[in-house]
Amino acid sequence: MAQLKAFSSSSSTNLLFHGSRKEPARTYDKIHCSRKASLEELGVKASEFCGHAIVHTSTNFGLACNKLVIQAVMASNTEPVTSAMDGKVLRGKLNKVVLAYSGGLDTSVIVPWLRENYGCEVVCFTADVGQGLQELEGLEEKAKASGASQLVVKDLKEEFVRDFIFPCLRAGAIYERKYLLGTSMARPVIAKAMVDVAREVGADAVSHGCTGKGNDQVRFELTFFALNPELNVVAPWREWEITGREDAIEYAKKHNVPVPVTKKSIYSRDRNLWHLSHEGDILEDPANEPKEDMYMMSVDPQDAPNQPEYVKIGITDGLPVSLNGKVLSPASLLSELNAVGGRHGIGRVDMVENRLVGMKSRGVYETPGGTILFTAIRELESLTLDRETMQIKDILALKYAELVYAGRWFDPLRESMDAFMKEITKTTTGSVTLKLFKGSVNVTGRESPYSLYREDISSFESGKIYDQADAAGFIRLYGLPMRVRAMLEKGI
């Protein structure tokens, strides 16, 4: 992607931290300073860093930095810095921050908060992972009205399904028996794109709007660490004094930020091409039944068609490739199955899960297309995998799901496990036919050119390959430990 046009903020000064080991200089954009500022004005103590702090007022400058010191200053590890621009006390000084932006109240407020507290330019980033076109409308205007220099939008739907969803599908990864990892898989693909955008626009930091109680903060930041450990990470919810919606609205009004006028949902939702999650309100009490009007991707199974619908999923090397004989791209295939499954009330899950940060939470998930695909692939494996391989795969699938849930997508362990999953599913090729009816998914047929099922062996009729008389010797040997123990107990 071509270098995006950078935004020049108002006058500011820049700090260069020189460590004991010199690195090649990096050239930054020209920045104009309206006046010279002393170290005393900036409130910088050289001893607080790995070397000396030097103020540059020239328009072109390089940066030499100890590898142990990140380019700009982590908010949790710095003393306040006084801005040479307006005299306000900053939490730290950053040049340019890429913010994960949704256009909602929280991220709209984060834009001016970053500028006010870090004296930086803010580039908003939005990933299209299938949350719907209505979520993307008017975002550029909102971002710039909040003080951002620009909005970058990337369509990640195909990458999301192909490189993140499908590997989990092939691995059979399900967290705590029910959760198909919809949000868990989406965060690393978004964070990966943010790292790319940060490189494209020359940013030295990234930021997100995740709270300090959730899993997403971990998923975003572990991806940042894995892909570019030099980037600074700013998490406003762990720093600012804003405690809730009303505080955010007041902050927005104070800074002339247009408050989103959309009606706030009573539920906290996350939607992408794989699923839709619901949390909050009455769901916070696990004893409460979800209200029917909460669901958005699926109809009430009671209201689903009175006639079943049959679908045939084509699978190659453990991955879905076609629907009813029609070859489709990963995102298109999933999108069509969401529509089919949704109208039959498929894929609703109500569960209490253990968050990575230690607490339990209750969530309701809608995953219509994903539920159909998981059922199909698991069923085909009943033909193509032997007993020992299937058992090992199921054991590893639990760990695979745990790694994904915990945000360790780019962990070498997950990548190594993925290589194993790819290898053992090379023969998981064929098709599965399923019947969808009022919330249920039932397998009606499966076939594969690599099937280990042999009718001439499995038949009750006698055959040349399997002699039933051989079973007697097998049973005596297989049961020998039990027989010896019984003989010991009876003194035989």
Helix content: 25-40%
Q: Give the mean pLDDT.
A: 85
Strand order in the sheet with the most strands:
7-6-5-8-9
Task: Measure the end-to-end span.
Answer: 80 Å
User: Can you summarize the main beta sheet?
Assistant: 5 strands, parallel
Q: Catalogue the unreliable spans.
A: 1-79
Proportion of strand residues: 15-25%
Count of distinct strands: 18
Q: By helix and strand content, what is the structural category? A: alpha+beta
What is the overall silhouette? elongated
Separate helix tally: 14
Defining traits:
492 residues; 19% strand; 5-stranded antiparallel beta sheet; 14 helices
Please give a structural write-up.
- The chain has 492 residues and is α+β, with helices and mostly antiparallel strands.
- 34% of the residues lie in helices and 19% in strands.
- The protein has helices at residues 39-42, 105-118, 139-146, 157-171, 182-201, 216-227, 245-254, 330-343, 368-384, 387-405, 412-424, 455-458, 470-478, 480-489, and strands spanning 14-18, 52-56, 81-82, 89-90, 96-100, 121-128, 150-155, 205-207, 232-234, 268-271, 276-279, 309-316, 319-323, 326-327, 348-354, 360-366, 430-437, 440-447.
- The strands form 5 sheets. It has a 5-stranded parallel sheet, with helices on both faces. Strands 14-13-12-17-18 form a 5-stranded antiparallel sheet, covered by helices on one side. It has a 4-stranded antiparallel sheet with strand order 10-11-16-15, with no helix packed on it.
- The radius of gyration is 28 Å and the shape is elongated.
- Residues 1-79 have low confidence and may be disordered.
